Amino acid sequence: MTSKSQILKLYKTLLRESQKFPSYNYRKYSLRMIHDAFQENKNMTDRVLISAQIQEATRNLDIIKRQVVLGQMYSTEKLIIENVFDKV
Amino acid sequence: MPSLRTTATEHKCVLDSCRALEAEGFKITYLPVGSNGIISLEELEKAITPETSLVSVMTVNNEIGVKQPISDIGALCRDRKVFFHTDAAQAVGKIPLDVQSMKIDLMSISGHKIYGPKGIGAVYVRRRPRVRIEPLQSGGGQERGIRSGTVPAPLVVGLGEACDISQKQMAYDHTYIKKLSQRLLDQICSSLSHVIRNGDPIQTYPGCINLSFAFVEGESLLMALKDVALSSGSACTSASLEPSYVLRAIGTDEDLAHSSIRFGIGRFTTIEEVDYTVKKCIYHVTRLREMSPLWEMVQEGELI
Hints:
Chain B: Its EC number is 2.8.1.7. Chain A is mostly helical. Chain A is built from three helices and no strands. The N and C termini of chain B lie far apart (about 50 Å). In chain B, about 35% of the residues are buried. Chain B is globular, with a radius of gyration of 21 Å.
């Protein structure tokens, strides 16, 4: 039985783990996807569909955790876009 | 001797292969494209003769992003009983493709173009009506003699997963990329004059924009934009100092061809990256133009 707080917790965990990506592009992509996917499905009422989405989210959480670890092992320098304060 | 029909704007790998076939005695016709980069169906129809065995037209062009009328070409080829091959490397996973409805007989797929691993690709070969192909190399005779050698399983799984993800994300990615693409174009065109878009603005894939900045030298602009991964032309022609043959095929003036930049936007591109690129682009184009005597003449109304 999934509650609103459980889903919210999953959402926040996904975001928190995604922040750990050393790669700028993967990090931004992950954050955007999580936000957009949860936003799109926020009015879902069908229990079966909701549970399928939660399964998918949990699977993706595992992927994020794995890829974060790999990325941290082989990280590179920060991109110029990560250091820009409005200079050309 | 059988003959082939292809376009002048194909990827270099196709054009080079055609050249090799010509050396073996095949007759190849390189059909011209319009100024918008799209092939004329009437021209293609006229070019198909009883000796024609294959037509090869790429789905999405890698330099200017134009989409060729694949369904129409497929229908024409099926009607004339000619095999139809399409290089779909830039199209797979980005726009919907259906080999049945588009009557495609052979399709080239590239793994790394759809965020899969490098070093893997695939070719779709139609079964009905049967397309018979000869193996690239002889050896163990796997897959009924077509593919001797061992398939790199990890890479293949990567390609499969990449395709699966692309299928699920196609609509979402397309909306996102179109938004970024429009943003880039709107910002550049509202701040700079004399900017020409190479290739049809409608029959195009939004993730590939090719712009020419008049009165600016392309290599100088590329060097100024060194923080951004851009290109004038494509990777396979980067060693050459000549302007792109694709731009030449669409009739671009030599000066404008030299001052062209290709902007590639993909699944992982961010809005910040687009804004940064636009800002730098506007700044450097303006700066380089100020150094150009031709630009001065244009400003004073002495040139058109």
